[in-house]
Amino acid sequence: MSVKVRTALVSTAGHCKVACGFCFRADRAHGFLDTATYTRTLSRLREAGVEGVCLTGGEPTHHPQLRQLVRLAHQFGMSVSMVTSARSVAEVIALSHVTHLLSNVTVSADSQGAMLLGRTTRTAASGIATLRAISTETKILHITCWGLSDDECQELADLVSEAGVEVQFSPVVLDERALRRDGKSVQDYLVQQHLDADVLSRYFNLSDRYRAYLGELRDLQLPPTGGERWSCRSASAYVSADGHIRRCPYGQASVSVHAPRASIRQFLTDPAQDRVTPDCAAICRSSAASDDRTASCATPA
Q1: I need a surface site. Which of 17, 130, 157, 183 has the fewest CB within 10 A?
Q2: What's residue 55's pLDDT?
Q3: What is the DSSP track for 19-76?
Q4: 3-state secondary structure of 164
């Protein structure tokens, strides 16, 4: 069954200084998305019925023409959102210059255990400080969770309540290589995800769909004998910084934005050829098993 593509994640840069140890970005390279490629991309996406774009990483606030990227999307009648890890003064200033043009801003942060695992410094408090410094209608704090404690969740609940921002959660998603590197078994890893959900549920109203998502991750990590991974069902396309459109960031099938219009339209309307993996499930959960308050953000930053 073909799922209509309504939005697109757009990688504005091929590099990111945060370099999370659990990062599930599919593309890593130098350079920025150039405006000519981006403009052509917007034109082709709009012709295919795409209604909005989400500017994502690398880190979108590093793009030297960020304001132009946002305005170009508006010229094509598209809504624009952003996922960012902005913390430095320069990053927050760049973000503040465009937030009034964005439908929502999601700032990424990590739990204490996730920071240790991924070697990051993206605290929830610093994420909320970024959200406090900007003016946009919808502000979202996205927390990647690992090894949560009651004290940490209580502190987070107090921070979120005081700041008046929305909060979203997603578990750390590790591939087989990362599990081997950190000396973890798949079973221990899956147990930790459920333990973290149990702690979160004492302080936040987790939906049944969040639990269902953890079940999906379990089935992907430990598929039944003879089982086949299901086809991609995301309503978002992905555009790499070098101008290739995919139905999934990790998909093998792609089409260049410089291909003929008919080829791009067919690619976006034909049933997806890719199968869901744990990595892409972490990105695409919002289209399949999310809610407004506790869903995983659909893009990494």
Answers
A1: 183
A2: 95
A3: --TT---S---SSB--HHHHHHHHHHHHHTT--EEEEESS-GGG-TTHHHHHHHHHHT
A4: coil
pLDDT digits 0-9 by tens, 85-114: 999 999 999 999 999 999 999 999 999 999
Q: What is the pTM of this model?
A: 0.85
- Express each pLDDT in 199-222 by its tens digit: 999 999 988 888 888 887 777 776
Alpha carbon of 274 to those of 10, 89, 170, 179, 277: distances in Å? 19, 40, 23, 24, 9
Which is nearest to 194 in space by CA: 175, 178, 214? 214
Would you state the structure tokens that stand for residue 70, as one six-digit string?
């946002």
Task: Return d(Cα 265, Cα 283) in angstroms, integer.
Answer: 23
Q: DSSP 3-state assignment of 127?
A: helix
| CA–CA gap between residue 54 and residue 76 (Å, rounded) | 14
> Are the C-beta atoms of residues 196 and 148 closer than 8 Å to each other?
yes
